[in-house]
Structures are given as structure tokens and as C-alpha cells.
């Protein structure tokens, strides 16, 4: 055990004296995830300033304004009223509001029969998300109004006196459409960009450890120190474990640094710290296995560097380290299941949206374990073949 | 093979009765290995290198620290103990390379051509150290192409040619093999390759080799140099080779090698 620790400590000391390693594994992921968080910040500062033009001045139009000012939307939607559509249009174009909703004249009257011009949303290309929100709220409200109209029309068709229409309309307005469909498994909390890209960038850069460690092995072989270790009473197992421990510790330290900085400095949120730790450990183990595979596959330092680079970029592109998994094609999402980082990111996404414990990390841990086991099996096979050839 | 780096095709190596193998057997604890090329970590300090190699031999912490200090004194690097190896001169690295093989106080020290590419001062220091190790009771297995080193340092010499041990014994014993032969060293100008070939065909010539920094030397191992010398000079005249100087030496290990292999050593 002392020998294993001596080899691991020596490797770590060398690694920490390499400035490029510091930059790549510790500094770069923190900086890039911070930049991404700043660029795509989607946390509670999301805000939609919406204008409302009430040309109807009836209770139905007032109802829409009430919805926009409801407690559910408080903090997200801010309403400003305009007297005319032209004024609202100018405000949208000037960026004073992100979008504006125009309720046409006769909107309330249309509830009693007849037709009115449609409710319209004035939007701007600069604030697509806020315009979408305005459209969604309006459509939802109009759908409710249409349902009320249908109720009243049905009552009248069934023989209700026309004099009862205002009372029926008021009664229908109290009713609400049934609860919307809600897909099972969807999280309660929105995923913050930093909660995804923090670990994502951490994994991306920690995967470079594969190249460092594999190259280090060949450098040692070239400079003769591996022979020197082999001449000492040190078993191959101790050498292998010692080098693996250093790679594991280094990778884990890189991931831990990024997650800690993301959490402390950039308000990343994960529901379960133990889950974060488990995913980081599993990912560090897979880095160790990949390093062994690269060493088994190549024969020189240059080959190790080349293969490790290809491997890293293939894994991060397939695993979804640069884009949210939901933003990729089904094929890429399926291919991500063949990468440890793809599995880890699924876990971090669940943890970042409030899912806890085994529900969040169970499948990812098993997926990463399967990947690591497969890589280890191939490595052992290659080493045996090399020994016999 | 002696250090357990390679598996032997046949035979075995024992150190104080313990077999050496590629596995981490107890015999390896007794061996100190100093490879030909400097095998150290350039980004670690002198002390860190010695400490690391000492730890591989499971030295207890206090003993390790004591041995590291002793070895630093021994290789005269105590003042550079905390400097990185990459900042040392070539000679210092060579000395540290030897020191790293000594930290665990081995019973057998294997030195693989430790003076190759070393400046004269460092070479002298290394040879002095090796002599001292021997005097202190450490067995030293020293491989070299320099016969004068073998003659100066070794109690027993084995001559290996093309992977085969062709002679073994004390330096005096080996020199006896060519006791009646002389070594003739001719410094000359002209077509020395042709001249050397012609010399080889002369009777009483047992070994011929080219040498000298500028390739201007022909070395011969011959029987009765004085009677052969006129023939050598005649041959030079015939071949239009100008002889600049002639040296006749008493036989030494180099002559032994030349005699046994028929070729020069420094290849």
C-alpha cells in the first residue's frame, strides 16, 4: 500500500507542477461554465414586460389583465397599459416592453353572440421568449372564453331564455377548463444553465486527463524511470493501481472544483449533494478506465495524445456536453447513452431539476459502470494479446 | 535480466541465494539498478527523486530520510537537494542517477555504463565512488566499453561479445591469455582500411582494429612486435601509407578483447 501511495503521490506532485494541467482541468472549466451561465442565464431573473391595449373595456378584457397580474405570474410578468395599438407598437419597437397584447373592441360582447376581431400579440424578434409567453397566456385565456361561449350557446340551444344569457355567462366564467395534462417525470424546478454546463464543462476538461495520464506513462517509459520502478520490488499491480489512483484523484479534484465553484459562486443548484458526489466519482473512474484503454492501444507518446484527443471530442460531442440533451436529435440522444459523460449529464440534469436520490442518479451510475466495465474488458483483452504477440 | 527487467531464455540469476525474476521478489530488494541513461524525474527535486526511489524499497520513514541525506553527501549534491533535476548539469544528473540506485543500501549495485558521455571530472568522481562501494563490501556489477575502467575497478571481468560470455576471470588472469602478445599502435596517413586488411594477412598478427579520434590509428595484437615491426613498415611503404608514430604496449584488457574478438571495442 505504501508503494501504491508513493507512486500516486509522485504522479500527483508532477501533475500539479504542470501549469497547463492546472489551466485545463481547474481554471478553464470554471471560466467557460461561468461564461455560459452569463450568456444564457435562465434563472429567476427571467422577466417579461408586456403591454396591454384594452380597446374592449369590458369585463372579458379586464379578465385577461387580471390573469396577467395574477400571483402565479407575479415576478415574471410585468404589465403596462396603453390606450392605442400604435402606442403599444412603438413601445415594443423601442424595447420598452417585450411584447403587447391587443384586445379588440367588442371582445366582451362576442361572449353574448356574434363575432369580434381576434386578440393579437405584437412581438419583436429581440424578445421571442417573452412574445411566446404572451401568446401562450392569451391563447389560454381565449380558450377559456371560447369554452364559456360554448357553454352559454349550449344552454340557449337547450331552451334557456335569452334574458338569462348574462347570468349564464357569469356562471360559466366561474368554471375553469380541466387541469392541463402534465407529463410524469417532468421536474418541478427549471434547470439552470450553470447547473448543466458547470459539470458539463468540468467533464469535458477532465476528459483531457486521459491524454495527460497516457502521455505521462509513455514519457516515463522513454526516460527510463518505468524500468527503474520495475527493477524495484514493486509488482505490476501496485504500479497500475498507483497510477490509476493519481488519475482518479486528479479527475475527481477537477470535477469537484468545478461543481463547488458553480455552486458557491454561480448559484448552481442540485437537489442531492450525495448524488453529485456519486456521479463525479463514477465519472473519475471512467476516466481511469479510458486512460488504461489508450495506453493499451498505442505505443508512443504522440499516438497517445492523438487518440486521447479523438476520444475526448467524440465523447463530448456524443454525450451532449455542448448542448442541452433536449436540444439534440433522437439519434444523438440515443448515442449519448454509450458515453459516460452522456449518462452523467442525465444525472446532473435530474439533480438540477429537483429530482433526488436513486431516481436521479441510479440509471446514470449503472450506465457509467457498464461503460467502464466494457472499456476495462477491452483493455485487458488488448494487454493479453500484446503480451502473447 | 540481472535486475529482473527481462525474462531469461535460459538459466537463472541469484543474489545471495535468492532467485531474481520479473516479479516483485525479495531478491530485488537487494539490487540497486543504475541504468545507462539518466532515469530520473526532471520536474521533481533532487531530494524528491531520492525519496521516491527509496519508498519503492519500503524504507521506514526515518531511515529513508537519513539515507537520502547520506546519499546526497555521497554524490556531492547536498547543496542542490531542493533544486529540480532539470536545473542540474549533465555530470550532476549522472551522479544523482547513481545515488538513486543507492538509497536503499543494496547488496548488489548494477551500473550500466555509468561514465558514457560524462566529463572527466565527473567520470573521476564516479570511478572513485565505485571503488569506495567495493571497499565498503558492496558487490558492484559494472558494464563498460572502457577496458581501462574494468582494469581499474574490477576483481573479476567477464567479456561478452555478441551476447555470449567469451572469457571470465580476474584482470591478471585474462591478461595472461595474451601474455606473449604485444599491442602495436600505428598512427598513419593514407588508405588505412586497405592497410589494416593487409596487416591482418601477415603471420603473427592476431587482431587488427581501426581507432583514433580521426580514424588515423591502426591497432594490432601481435606475437613478438619487435621482429614484426620491419614487415609492418614495409607493408606501409608498399601501400603508400605514411607512418607518423609507432607505440608498442604491454598487453592489457583491451589487448585481451582485441585478441579474443578480433575487433575493436569502442563501437
Structural commentary:
The complex is a heterodimer of chains A (389) and B (267). Chain A is mainly alpha-helical and 389 residues long. Chain A folds into two domains: 238 residues, no CATH class; 127 residues, abc type-2 transporter like fold. Chain A is built from 15 helices and four strands. About 2% of the residues of chain A have low confidence. Chain B has 267 residues and is α+β, with helices and mostly antiparallel strands. Chain B folds into two domains: 130 residues, Rossmann fold (3-Layer(aba) Sandwich), CATH 3.40.50; 71 residues, Alpha-Beta Plaits (2-Layer Sandwich). In chain B, helix 3 runs parallel beside helix 4. The radius of gyration of chain B is 22 Å and the shape is elongated. The model of chain B has no long low-confidence stretch (mean pLDDT 87). Chains A and B meet through helix 1 and helix 9 of A and helix 1 of B.
Key descriptive features of the protein:
heterodimer; A: 389 residues; mainly alpha; abc type-2 transporter like fold; 15 helices; 4 strands; B: 267 residues; alpha+beta; Rossmann fold; Alpha-Beta Plaits; 2 domains; 3-stranded parallel beta sheet; 11 strands
What letter string, H or E per element, gives the SSE order of chain A? Answer: HHEHEHEEHHHHHHHHHHH
Q: What is the residue-mean pLDDT of chain A, rounded to a whole number?
A: 84
Greatest chain-chain contact: A-B, 21 and 29 residues
Strands of the largest sheet of chain A, in order across it? Answer: 2-1-3-4
Count every helix of chain B, treating DSSP H or I runs of 4 or more residues as helices. 9
- The rounded distance between the terminal residues' Cα atoms of chain B is 23 Å
GO molecular function, one term (chain B): ATP binding
Domain ABC transporter (chain B): 1-187
Pfam families (chain B): ABC_tran
InterPro entries (chain B): ABC_transporter-like_ATP-bd, ABC_transporter-like_CS, P-loop_NTPase
Mind sketching the topology for me?
The complex is a heterodimer of chains A (389) and B (267).
Chain A: H1 2-16, H2 19-39, E1 48-54, H3 59-68, E2 77-82, H4 85-94, E3 99-103, E4 120-122, H5 128-157, H6 165-174, H7 193-206, H8 208-223, H9 225-231, H10 236-266, H11 273-297, H12 301-319, H13 330-335, H14 340-352, H15 357-388
Parallel strand pairs in A: 1-2, 1-3
Antiparallel strand pairs in A: 3-4
Chain B: E1 14-15, E2 18-19, E3 31-34, H1 46-55, H2 61-74, H3 90-100, E4 108-112, H4 120-135, E5 139-143, H5 147-153, E6 157-161, E7 164-169, H6 171-176, E8 181-189, H7 192-200, E9 205-211, E10 217-223, H8 225-238, E11 242-249, H9 253-261
Parallel strand pairs in B: 3-4, 4-5
Antiparallel strand pairs in B: 1-2, 6-7, 8-10, 8-11, 9-10
Helix pairs in contact in B: 1-2, 3-4
